[in-house]
Amino acid sequence: MYSIRELSEIAGVSARTLRYYDQIGLLKPAYTNEAGYRFYGEQEINMLQQILFYRERGMDLKSIRKILYDEEFDLAGALEEHLRDLEQQKNRIDLLIDLVQRSIRAMKGVGDMRDAEKFQAFKENAVKQHEDMYGAEARRKYGDEEVDEAQRKVLNMTEEEYERFENLGKEIRERLKEAVLADVSPDSEEAGRIVMLHKEWLGMTWKKYTEEAHKAMANLYISDERFQAYYDREVPGCAVFLEQAIRNKVGAEK
Amino acid sequence: MYSIRELSEIAGVSARTLRYYDQIGLLKPAYTNEAGYRFYGEQEINMLQQILFYRERGMDLKSIRKILYDEEFDLAGALEEHLRDLEQQKNRIDLLIDLVQRSIRAMKGVGDMRDAEKFQAFKENAVKQHEDMYGAEARRKYGDEEVDEAQRKVLNMTEEEYERFENLGKEIRERLKEAVLADVSPDSEEAGRIVMLHKEWLGMTWKKYTEEAHKAMANLYISDERFQAYYDREVPGCAVFLEQAIRNKVGAEK
DNA sequence: CTTGACTTTGACGCTGCGTCAACTTATATC
DNA sequence: GATATAAGTTGACGCAGCGTCAAAGTCAAG
What we know:
The structure is a homodimer.
Chain A: E1 2-3, H1 4-11, H2 15-23, E2 31-32, E3 38-40, H3 42-56, H4 61-69, H5 75-107, H6 113-155, H7 159-181, H8 189-203, H9 211-223, H10 225-232, H11 238-253
Antiparallel strand pairs in A: 1-3, 2-3
Helix pairs in contact in A: 1-2, 3-4, 5-6, 7-8, 8-11, 9-10, 9-11
The structure holds a DNA duplex (30 and 30 nucleotides).
């Protein structure tokens, strides 16, 4: 029989820990004195070793109790679930590391760090908004990898690059509107130039440009109401015009 | 001016969170009503965005407060420190994942999982004890990588392998004692056989066997009192005998 | 003046113990 | 048997970052 201090020294845990384990019903002493003193036997040492075995693997005490006391408990299943949990934690940390590294890079060489901070936050906001609006659709169509990569590209842009990206988008919409209002043909030279701008604009976020993807994107503009609404907001017909122009130009280049 | 609910909706956090931030002095409202109602302005929105910016990167609120309120605070330094912290967390998780994966593998195909569990714990104990005793010395001499690899090798042993490993060690010590008691020469055939056993024994944990390392190990036996004590515990002279035998045999093989 | 929507403070809960504090017991010494 | 000391006991608070009641006060609208 071992006193609480003896067991704590054998197992390398504090007496407080043993009392706590008693309290939550994880490890009861073999018996208690009439004065309330706790005494542990060999069995309890074994139990404690098992507890520590799982604790070292990062399991919470509630799960450990289930493993050790629920008869016929699915041990293998519990371990695999715990493994998945750990991998999620790891993914989360990897994400944080990525974010912090990017922030450090972005703030280096920039005069005002607070400025860089705000710019970062701004880009993140833009990406998040975009994700909320088109994320599901894009992921279904191009896959998670492509979309994640595109987002990474945006997040890594410098202020100059981002400004160019925004201006490009604006210029496309402007020239589209003018073309549609002037009733220009989607086969015209101006339409071709707009398509080239659009291609450049896409290239700033896509991992790699392909004609297929470009045409698929164009198709989205007329088939998905949210995309269509985006281009037709001020002048109706822009989405259709852009789609035709892309279909002509990108098909003809071949 | 925004009420607490308005700000919480703008920023996507709960009102409770805002009250908590007020309480810990992280974000005070622009002013409070005579009734205690909190009201926030544009400045506070900005502040909150900054807070959330760092919170998303996994920083604790205390650090964030320092960053935002301590004038001339070393922002870059804080970010890099945080990065190191995250990397440590990642290392810890990687270690846990490794442990759990090994446990899952070890328990698969074994009849009694509790048995496998105990065996794992047993090996871990052995490795830990060894680390406590010789770890620092070994790491200085062979480097962390080698030692870690050796430990991994032991931890991955099956029960049969581990038994063989233990028996080999015991046999070496037994035959050493007999040889020394019988006053056999370190040049003798029996000494040679012991050296071969010792080589096999080392091979079970070392990443790769080299004669240099073998001789260095032998040298440890006579130069380090803890190693010497290990072999001389029952019959004095065993450590010296083994060292000489290894020096002869390993040198002569060339 | 009443209703209903908001807001306030206060307090417990969660995780796994560390760390007092105030007391009671066991053990060794004289 | 008295006493000093070591070891044990049961609370209870603290930590981080809020979620989640509860009880009570406040505001704008009708």
